[in-house]
Every structure is written in structure tokens, then in C-alpha cells.
């Protein structure tokens, strides 16, 4: 397949709809691995892989209600089911490979499945990018609330976890330990009281750019970006990117392709029927310190493996 229509159902190579919402793409050993929410049956997180971002092979339900769980710290709940047997809620999974421990480390937003009051982050690890991940439970970083989140890996191997704190009012940037299994410091606190969600980060010419949405549940709103010359800040005042609904999407993640193209991936949520939610992929431009996206319906792969938009 060499063509995708934005906002329609994208299929995997078996012809099944791709369930990888609120996700993340990790490039590893020649493949793009796409992780995302899969709320069907007893699944939580699914993984697909592709060599070209168009043809996706379903790999595994990497976390389900039946996943193995083990504690790596005290006072952590490792339950993947509630007492009544119902599912908890795992949202916006992100995965990085940690060189030091040679493991894939997943961070995700955890809620109890009834409401959004736990506001915690959870982690899991695996020896393979698409194996059965072992769940290590959820916690509140330094006691803070932690909801919409992302991971960012810097060129020197330092990783950051970014999440919405204080009932989504503030965005926190945490530096991770060098094994990525815990938080090492609260590196920056951005945009207090601005209610930014759905963070995604990219680095270009030694400047860090973060794009976020406003906090309106499944309904789309005006995307904004900020920038800094260090992840620790100071971060700039937010500026608009995209249109007033970010082209009917909420940021999921940003990919830099093997040949250097920057791509914005957004979720086009269906608030009435979550399973009908789709994705959009748009060219992301960073020029003169500004982050820009423009809308195109069609995404195509040329014979020279370039992604073009129409
Ligand atoms: C959005 C958030 C999603 C999900 C949703 C639930 O604001 O970005 O990840 O939590 O709310 O209403």
C-alpha cells in the first residue's frame, strides 16, 4: 500500500483496522514500531511495525489484563484489573529502548477505569520491542498528578517524561534515571494554569519544540507549541500551530523518518464512538523558530520512499 487518506480507517496488512490510539512510534533496527491504545476485549496496548509507515504488520497485544506483573519498587499497585474484574485505563503509551539495561521501557497514563482521579503514570518493560511486556505498576511522580504524557529521548541518551499535573493545569517535564525506570528530577514546570495536554516533542537545530493541545476531552482545539534551548527550560510562551481544531486532531507524536522528514501524527477522536477514532499524518515544518502543520487529505509514498501530501 502506498496511499493513506487522513481521518479514515487505516488498515494493517491483514486488513484489520489499526488500534494504536494516543500512541508513539519508535524506530528500531530498520522498523518503525507503532504502540498505542487498544481498548478492545482484554487488550490495553498493541504494537504494529512497518518499514515505510504505510504497510503495518500487527505484532502483539503487548499489555493486556493478563500481562505478567512484578514490582520494581515498594508501595506500587501492579493490578491490571479492578476488584470487580473490570479493566483499568491505560492511555497514551510511549516506548524507548534503554541501552544500559537493554530493555524496551514503556510509560503510560494510568487511571482506575471508573474515573480520572488516580492521575498516575505506569511503567512496563520487555526484552523485545514487540514482546509481552512485564507490567511494573503505577505511581504519582513526587506525589503529583500525572495524566496526558509523552517520552522524549535526547541525542545523549537522556530521556524525559512529560505529563500534565495539578488536574492538567501545569505541564511537568521530568528527567528519567539512566535506566528509564524512574524519575530522577523535576526538570521544568511549564505553562502553569494553561491546561495543556497531549504533549509531543521534537528537537531541531539544537532547539526543543513541544506541541500540545488544550484540555477539552475528546473534542479537538487549537494546538500550540513552545520551544527551549534546554529541556530544563526556560520554555517560551506558547504560540498557535495548525488551525483552531488542529485540523480536527489532538497531537499523538512526532516522527523523524529515516530520510529526515518530520511528520505530525494526530488522533482524530470520535467522542461518541471511541473505536471509530482515526489518525492523521501531516508534514511538520520547523522554520525560523516556528512549528507549522498544514492539512492534506492524501498521504502517498513515492518510489523513492519519500512521503508526499496532496
Ligand atoms: C483527552 C486526553 C485523552 C483522553 C480523553 C478522555 O483530553 O487527551 O488522552 O484522556 O481526554 O476524555
What report would you give on this structure?
This protein is an all-beta fold. It has one domain: Glycosyl hydrolase domain, family 43 (Tachylectin-2, Chain A, 5 Propeller), CATH 2.115.10.20. It is 0% helix and 50% strand. The protein is built from no helices and 23 strands. It has strands at 3-5, 21-28, 31-37, 43-50, 57-64, 89-98, 103-111, 120-126, 134-139, 149-153, 159-165, 170-176, 183-190, 196-204, 207-214, 223-228, 239-241, 250-256, 262-268, 278-287, 290-293, 298-301, 307-309. The strands form 6 sheets. The protein has a 4-stranded antiparallel sheet with strand order 2-3-4-5, with no helix packed on it. Strands 6-7-8-9 form a 4-stranded antiparallel sheet, with no helix packed on it. A hairpin with a 2-residue loop joins strand 2 and strand 3. The two termini are 16 Å apart. The mean pLDDT is 97. Beta-D-galactopyranose (GAL) is lined by residues 22, 91-92, 148, 197-198, 215, 217-218, 250.
Query: SSE order, as H and E?
Result: EEEEEEEEEEEEEEEEEEEEEEE
CATH class, named Mainly Beta
Number of beta-strand segments: 23
Are there runs of 5+ residues with pLDDT below 50, and where? none
The name of the CATH superfamily reads Glycosyl hydrolase domain, family 43
Morphology: globular
User: Which fold does the CATH topology refer to?
Assistant: Tachylectin-2, Chain A
Task: Give the proportion of residues in helices.
Answer: under 10%
Side by side, the strands of the main sheet go: 2-3-4-5
Number of helices: 0
Question: What is the residue-mean pLDDT, rounded to a whole number?
Answer: 97
**What's the number of domains?**
1
Any idea what the CATH architecture is?
5 Propeller
Biggest pleated sheet = 4 strands, antiparallel
